[in-house]
Amino acid sequence: MRSCAWCATDDLYVQKDFPQGLGLLIVIVGFAISTVFWYLERPIPAYVVLLASALLDMILYYRVPDVTICYRCLGQYRGVGSNLEGRFKPFDLAIGERYRQERLRAEQLRKQGASANSPPPA
């Protein structure tokens, strides 16, 4: 794949195909349980919980496949051939912000066009 099939842009990025909310939940739960052990002055179980959380994170990182995402239309491509030869890189904030501004401007123009075509208030 060289470009997005929907909008034909060649600006795409890769990320792990894993729900960010679930990943955050794993970290928060591990931190909370570890904090309870620290409060109870039990450092060894606290470290074990932190280590287990880190181990779970590492296992998920290597087991979960990548997804290729279009910056412009946010189309997602999975499976073999979505990032041949490692062509697409991780998310770049500068490119992402450029396309976010483009989407905001298009929405603003769409709203202005809709209000220009609507009948005047009575």
Report on this model:
By secondary structure, the protein is of the alpha+beta class. It has three helices and four strands; from the N terminus they run βααβββα. The protein has helices at residues 20-39, 43-63, 93-117; strands at 12-16, 66-70, 76-77, 89-90. A four-stranded mixed beta sheet has the order 3-2-1-4, with no helix packed on it. The longest helix has 25 residues, at 93-117. The radius of gyration is 22 Å and the shape is flat. 7% of the residues are buried. The mean pLDDT is 90.
Number of domains in the coordinates? 2
Distance between the termini: 54 Å
User: How would you spell out the order of helices and strands?
Assistant: EHHEEEH
Radius of gyration from the CA trace?
Answer: 22 Å
Q: Sum up the overall morphology in one term.
A: flat
Structural class of the helices, strands and pairings?
alpha+beta
Mean pLDDT: 90
* Uncertain parts: none
Q: What's the total count of β strands?
A: 4
Helix count from the secondary structure assignment? 3
What share of the residues does DSSP label as strand, in percent? Answer: 5-15%
Main sheet characteristics: 4 strands, mixed
Fraction of residues in H or I helices:
40-55%
Major sheet: arrangement of strands: 3-2-1-4
